[in-house]
Specification:
It contains ten helices and eleven strands. By secondary structure, it is an alpha/beta fold. It has a four-stranded parallel sheet with strand order 6-5-7-8. The protein has a three-stranded parallel sheet with strand order 3-2-4, with helices on both faces. Strands 1-11 form a two-stranded parallel sheet. It binds NADP nicotinamide-adenine-dinucleotide phosphate.
């Protein structure tokens, strides 16, 4: 077993971004700017947005937060998005999910200018990704590919099993890894809650990506010895520690790490890469590369 150290890799990416932003500022140009919209007071969403702001600050990227009460109307939200879409000093915009039930999140995402959609959730960006055209890639799948690339894990010709078909993780990562490219060129099996014989499929995987949102779901009996394990899950489990909780993933790390090849820890694996990918996309938006 070898740890795939997402924390160290993401720090390296942030250092690269910091150097690039410093060079921009040295040229007396304005810094890249990421705006975030946060609705309501969901603690997890607040934590995610705070980490994104912190990461921006550490790399010199300007960040601004547009915060709304839970009861904000969809109309008001759409008008703020329109304002940000037309503000030439803002390069990227993220709308933290989930939104309250009275707001149609599909409509909200579709109202973001695709050229500022650094989360890569806009239908235009998802469509371009499907066609292999330049686009903003969703941050978590992009972080996973970057992790594989920088860890020199070869995906060509490999059988990759993805557990979970969400629009933000499972489906895009399966698509990205099955396309031509490096990482890519893999044969991908995408599993979900209606998949028969899940264990039989998992045990055939050279690379197993778990994104199903169930703590410790992947057991050693489901893993081929030496397989690469990418654990996307994030779960806050209450315990008697001083903090009162610990973070764990979708993989039963203790038993799986005894038989697998390279594996991402939780925390310190994929989670760390998601924010790094978001910053990479912000820089891409600033450079108007699309
Ligand atoms: P999600 O939207 O809840 O999707 C879960 C997927 O898992 C669904 O496709 C579901 O199938 C499938 N599934 C559920 N139970 C299953 C079972 N018993 N067997 C096979 N498939 C099953 O989850 P998500 O948003 O993709 O997130 C997944 C996990 O990743 C969560 O723990 C989340 O917190 C974490 N996450 C981490 C990051 C990061 O930065 N590291 C980013 C995003 C999410 P159906 O489609 O049939 O319902």
């Amino acid at each position: 077993m070898k740890l795939i150290d997402g924390k160290t890799i993401s720090e390296k990416i942030k250092e690269e971004i910091k150097t690039e932003v410093a060079a921009i500022i040295d040229r007396d140009e304005r810094a890249p700017h990421l705006a975030a919209i946060l609705v309501g007071d969901d603690p997890a969403s607040q934590t995610y947005v705070a980490s994104k702001e912190k990461a921006c600050k550490s790399t010199g990227i300007t960040s601004s937060l547009y915060k709304f009460e839970e009861k904000v109307s969809e109309k008001e939200l759409l008008s703020v998005i329109d304002f940000i879409n037309n503000d030439n000093d803002i390069d990227g915009l993220i709308v933290q999910q989930p939104l309250p039930p009275h707001i149609n999140s599909d409509r909200v995402v579709a109202s973001i200018n695709p050229l500022k959609d650094v989360d890569g959730f806009h239908p235009v960006n998802l469509g371009k990704m499907m066609l292999g055209l330049p686009s903003f890639l969703p941050a978590t799948p992009m972080g996973i590919l970057e992790l594989l690339r920088r860890s020199k894990i070869d995906t060509e010709g490999k059988h990759i099993v993805v557990l979970g078909r969400s629009n933000i993780v499972g489906t895009p990562v399966a698509l990205m890894l099955s396309r031509k490219g490096n990482p890519g060129n893999a044969t991908v099996t995408l599993c979900h809650s209606k998949t028969d014989n899940l264990n039989d499929l998992c045990i055939q995987a050279d690379i197993l990506i778990a994104a199903i949102g169930k703590p410790g779901f992947v057991k050693a009996s489901m893993v081929k010895p030496g397989a690469v394990i990418i654990d996307v899950g994030i779960h806050r489990i209450e315990d008697k520690s001083e903090k009162g909780y610990h973070i764990t993933g979708d993989v039963e790390f203790k038993e799986v790490s005894k038989i697998c090849g390279p594996i991402t820890p939780v925390p310190g694996g994929v989670g760390a890469m998601t924010i790094a990918a978001l910053l990479m996309n912000t820089l891409k938006a600033y450079r108007k590369e699309l």
